[in-house]
Amino acid sequence: MYVEPPENIISLHEFQKLALDRLQVLKKIEFMNDANQDHQVIKETVIKMTKAHRIAVIADRNVLSSFSMTTEERKEFRVNDNISHFICRLAYCRNEELRKWFLTQEARLFNIRLQDAQHEIIQGLLKDQCGISYQVCQESDEDWQIFRHQITFKQLKLSDQIPSNFVKVPFKEAISLVSRRAVFLHLGVAYVPVKELTTILSAHFRAKVSAELVKAYKFWPEIIKDERIQRMLINLSNHSAIDFNIYEQKAPTDGDKIKLSDLDYYSRKSFPPCMKSLFTVLRNKHHLKHYGRLQLGLFIKGLGLTMEEAYTFWKQEFCKNMDNDKFEKQYGYNIRHNFGKEGKKQDYKPWNCQKILQQTTPGPDEYHGCPFKTFSEEPLRQMLSSYGLKPDDMKVVIDKRRENLHQVACLRLYELSHPNGVSDNVGNHPNAFFNSSVQYIKDVEKNKFKRGITAPSTEVVVGTAPVETVIEKPKDVEMDQI
Ligand code: SF4
Description:
- The chain folds into three domains: 9-117 and 219-236, no CATH class; 129-201, no CATH class; 260-450, no CATH class.
- Helices cover 56% and strands 4% of the residues.
- The protein has 22 helices and six strands.
- The strands form two sheets. Strands 2-3-5-4 form a four-stranded antiparallel β-sheet, with no helix packed on it. A two-stranded antiparallel ribbon has the order 1-6.
- Strand 4 and strand 5 form a beta hairpin.
- The longest helix has 23 residues, at 12-34.
- Mean pLDDT is 84; it is low at 60-66 and 454-482.
- The structure holds iron/sulfur cluster.
């Protein structure tokens, strides 16, 4: 229930890593819920992810025992869980929208952890964490004797229709059960089956986290006195700059034709920053405004996607937030127009770097343009780290950007993330960056094969996860000072 703030001493690097690990889990939960995935599949995925990120797994003893974790490991997982929750709480307390997102995903995570938990665990949590212990019905109670059939009306099995299976809960605390008519209500008391206590615990959890988020915001001016922490917390809530890595990316298997299903793989490995950022925003927000759609749309056209594939690409993403009819009316024409099938029937070419750099400065909720020009330094560093750049290399690129040599900065990024790769026309055209990067990866794989290395290795460095290298000089920070 995250009652005690952590008092551990951790480095800034760990601070960021723990928070990003948790955010990957929360984002995956959001993604799977939006996609209406089966509860069991979501639960299994979350267990796998939380285990991989070494944060607390689940409250089900049966599941826990099957993990054969040592006591030390469990302790470490719990500590990581607590720290990462509190960091994210700080990062997401700043406004209503962030608070709402964090609260929704945390409540979902909490519910997943409680699924299948025995009611003794739930009752224990209610007592220990919320100081609540509900009165259990007794055979001798007058209300049980009068209303037993009404109280047990939802229990089909005779074995469940016993008084010790029900607790008396003030109706305000059982509001969601009352509203779906799942419990019997009499004189302000809801008679709740013990197996439904999860719902009540979950409501307490939501109310508690919600109140704590508001409280955390009151301390925001104190928190941001340390500029490094401030930058980090703001970045942690900027979903357009974080690569959550929530889509499955299988390496393309056949030939040179780029397929729709390959885009997630390539977006991490070979897209230049301008396209990677648009692609990430599209995946996270399921929408892009006009210039962003044009910039990314023409780029993917340049990758060789057919009009039908491009249509499916946009539709799949946009229709997570709208119905098919609205999508067709508002966006279908423009997609066909890009392919020369509407209006002047002109075959539009992908934009080159100059054209992208000349675009108007992106307004609110716009992400077009060249990140070397439009991003401030911190998000840019985050973007660069997603290409596996080390702090020294990052400095080389950032220096060029400070001189306003945006295209040179892009070329340096390519050279540093693709050592000894051919960089034909990179820095002049996003599609050249892409083509050179794809060729580079192919060559590296071919060389590995020639040298007889068949097992997967980490030799191809482009597109590594963004969490490892953002901090230049890790310094210790005490959590309780935050
Ligand atoms: S320099 Fe060109 S390819 Fe590189 S990020 Fe900017 S617009 Fe994209």
